[in-house]
Every structure is written in C-alpha cells, then in structure tokens.
Amino acid sequence: MPASTAHSAQRCIDALNTAASPGSSPLCTVMAMANTLESSQQAWVIRGQSRSRRMGNWPTWFARNRGEKPLLYLHSATSSAQLHALSEHTAQRGILCNDIENRPSPWPRGADPSLPLWLATHPRCTPYDPASGDEARAIVLAGLRTLYVDGQPGFYYLALHDQDGNTPLDSQDRADAHKGMYPIQRGQVGDVRLLGAGRALEEVMHAARLLAQDWNITTQVWSCPSYTRLAREAAAAERWSRLHPMAPRRSCHLRDCLAGNAAPVIAVTGYPQAIVDQLRAHVATRFMALGAGSVQATAPSRYWVVISALRALAEEGRIDALDVEKATARYPLG
User: Strand order in 287-292's β-sheet?
Assistant: First the structure.
C-alpha cells in the first residue's frame, strides 16, 4: 500500500474521530461520516444518485485521479448483477454502502435473494449488516484502517437501515463488532443464546424479554454484524488445524465467543436462512437458524424466535415439550 494512501486513510480516521457522532441509525450515521470525509478531501465519496459521478463515468473519473484514496460509495443496488457491476467498476476496493432496504420492495430487505448469497460467496467481499449507528461507525472506521492503512485486499459492504439503534459500544465492543459479533451485555449467562443481525436484532431482544417474562428463561443476546465473516474465519481455522494435525487447534472469534457454555444457539437474520446456516458446522451445541422464508416470508418475528428457543430447550430435555405447544397457541404466529 503506497504511503500516500495510508496517510490519506489515517487523516480520514482522524477527521471521523474528531467529528461528533450522531449515534442514530446506520444510514444517518454513515451519511454523516460521508459528509465529514468529503470535507476532509482525503477520500473519494461517491453518491450513486449523483449525476456527475454515475457508475458509468468511473473509468474516466479514475483516470484523472492517480493514486488510490479511501473510497466510500453510497448506492442502492437491488440485485447481485447490479452489485457485481458496481464492484467491478470500483476495482473491488472500497466501502460500499447500500440503502435499498429503506425503499418499497416486494423482497425482504429490499433486495433480490441473490444479492445476500452473492455477498456471502464473493471471496473479496466482507459483508456487514449493522444493527445500530454505533456499529456502522465502528465498521467503517475499521474498514478504513484494514483496507487502506494495513493494505489488505478486497472491499467492505454495509447494508444500511434507517431505524435508530440504542446499543452504545465500548472499545472492546467496537473491535468485536468488526470481527463479526459481540455480546449486548458482557458477563451475562443464559439458558439459551440468541444471535441477531441488523434490524432482526430488535426482534431478538424483544424475544429475550418474552422468554424471561413468560417462561422464566434467561438469555444471552449477541449482535452479529457479519455472520459471513464469522463463518469464513471459522472455516479457515478448521482448514489450518487439518493441515497441522500435531499443532494445537486454531481458534476463531465465533468459538471464542461461544466457548464455555452448552446452551442452545438461535441465530436470526432478515436475509434468507442460508446466510446464518454458514455457522452451523462451527457451533458445537444445538443450533437453529432463522431467516426470511424459514417460518414466514419476511424476517422471523419475536414470537417465532421464542418458539424456536423453547423448542431447542425442549429437545434437550431442559423444559417440558408441552411448553412449546402452549407458546404456539399463545402467540400470534401469522
């Protein structure tokens, strides 16, 4: 990575750290960060709706700007084909932020189901689904350092919703959010562990309250901004351990977070279930994945999260199976 690029990235990071953080939704937070980066004149901030900087003008625009600078691209891609074209025009570099889920659409999260699957399988893309503005801010800052100071290849993708999140992060939370997951409350142990990403985290937290109030079941809640990053790191650790059978088994962030607890894990996303299924092979305890299409066309509601948690506990003999039937009759599951 050229020294000039790293210097520009560090000045971007310094400018963002100096600017006030609104602490609102992921979309509003990233828009505020984009304004700061534009003012710094140390980054390329491209707004997909801009007439002068449309995607088709990229080759000419890049030709006039020798040397790489940090790139933040704000766009509204609805399909994998559009996102593929965008990634090619950006030379598979930068931080690409998609606000499509805030617009009317027949699809869950506003995107064709092919889009999240493309994100999960693209080797140069690290996708994130932040639940709050603080998560989005932490991920963008970490992305600037990873891509442009440390010089790692590839690009980041953030799905941005416009719903306020109220999960303030400390320094450890920010680092762990970049790695893929962090606990909503550190040190808390539960009968069941609930994982959520993006807007689905709010339903997961409501489910945790219902489990406590209605069933006297304690929960440990985790925010997981990137199921894909967790799964890739876990798979890489598994491969390394197979290739080095005499060495101590290599760990990963997912296993470190879930270690020392045999409670079932319920992982929830607003994307298709396949996004969460990536974790299944790397979770040692009972695991249930929920996504759009798992139990209803849209993201699973808090009631389905409760039912799934009770079912997992019943299958392990920790509660009576009749409780699952009672819960099914009690809650609106339509």
Answer: 182-183, 219-223, 192-196, 265-272, 287-292
